Amino acid sequence: MKSETGSNSSARAPLSQERVLHAAVAVADQGGLESLTMRRLGEHLGVEAMSLYKHVASKDQILDGIIDIVVGEIDLPSPGTHWKTAMRQRANSARRVLTGHPWAIGMLESRNAMGPAALRYTDAVIGSLRGGGFSIELAAHAFWLLDSYIYGFVVQELSLPFPTDEKSASRATAETLPLDEYPHLVEMATEHVTSPDQYAIEFEFGLDLILDGLEKHRDG
Amino acid sequence: MKSETGSNSSARAPLSQERVLHAAVAVADQGGLESLTMRRLGEHLGVEAMSLYKHVASKDQILDGIIDIVVGEIDLPSPGTHWKTAMRQRANSARRVLTGHPWAIGMLESRNAMGPAALRYTDAVIGSLRGGGFSIELAAHAFWLLDSYIYGFVVQELSLPFPTDEKSASRATAETLPLDEYPHLVEMATEHVTSPDQYAIEFEFGLDLILDGLEKHRDG
DNA sequence: TTCTCTTGGCTTACTTAGTAATCCTACGGG
DNA sequence: CCCGTAGGATTACTAAGTAAGCCAAGAGAA
Lengths: 220, 220
Hints:
The structure is a homodimer of 220-residue chains.
Chain A: H1 17-31, H2 38-44, H3 59-73, H4 83-100, H5 116-131, H6 136-159, H7 166-176, H8 183-191, H9 198-219
Helix pairs in contact in A: 1-3, 3-5, 4-5, 4-6, 4-9, 5-6, 6-9
Chain A binds a DNA duplex (30 and 30 nucleotides) through residues 6, 14-15, 37-39, 47-51, 53-55, 58-59.
């Protein structure tokens, strides 16, 4: 098993900070944040845990790094696009990316260092709004509002059990609950359909409402 | 030091699940989530770590419990109030509570249990909307939209360095950044005033926009 | 009273984490 | 040919969650 003498062709690719961070994303994606340990990450890269420290300073730095990688996956508004289209696109892209890396959203509040991708993202969004005729003040408002909505929506979407676990949802709403204590909850659970793409519809509703409201502010 | 023989007056109050959970909130409040360890929690209660397990099943259960305690601190809309007033009140209350326990927001996505307080909260909000003339569908939309906004706003508010650390903010925006790479960011940082209660103003803006939009939907 | 449960605490010890300190080895330039 | 260094492995320390089992004090029952 240790026939790796000399210039064997299967000599593993050398580590690098980049490879470590991308591997960390992969590990977190498949096992969740709590499965991302230095030893497991090393294993994933065919390397001992301590070897990682030759490329990153600490686990904290890894955590900062993988957030920025995720943020970097969000599509930036392309310069020419109308602001409303651009905002809709980046909102949908952000939601897709964040739900695709469910561990990421929970880290946004704890680590406040904005990496390069986060800076680029923020700059592009504000730029798109300014280009769309928003004042500085209104652009700031719009940015806060839209980002709040996106983050919060994803937080809720991920914290609700529906998508992953069909039967736990019905059990939670139908059996476990003391039905008469929460009449409105029960009413909603029974009468409000919950289709697989309900979240997309729900997301669109709020997004449209916000974009329309912003447009009115811009024009009025 | 072990003079606690017999019916000493300073015999410590007996533990209980409630006392453990409230102590856990206190520990997390003063030291952050990562400072909440079983040993420290025990210390805080004058007890060994393992003794806690006579009252709670696991640390996970503690985490679920303290979230529900925090949610329970949010003011519920009082039944008689106009829906718009009620939503504004509970939004402000929720923001106040969540920023007061900064560790809480990051846990909302990971633990999906919904304790009794969360159920009560959800039920009351939906009830207020239904009472205000919202259809089931629109009440669901409104709930999602408002809660997304609140959660997301708090996430952003807590992840930005401004309030706690005055000089790190200016350093981050003024010195560390390669200024010309992020022109819009720089513009906003320089021209957009950031007063201490900026967050409250920012929050109001989005809240008003959303509430007005919802009202329009309800009436049209 | 005395014996025995039960309740609620303590002690010990095992596992898994992050990481400091140290060591080893192959390679590249003098 | 030698040696410094880069990039890996080894060992070991500390802190955390928690399983297992011990022990004291109070509440009934005989």
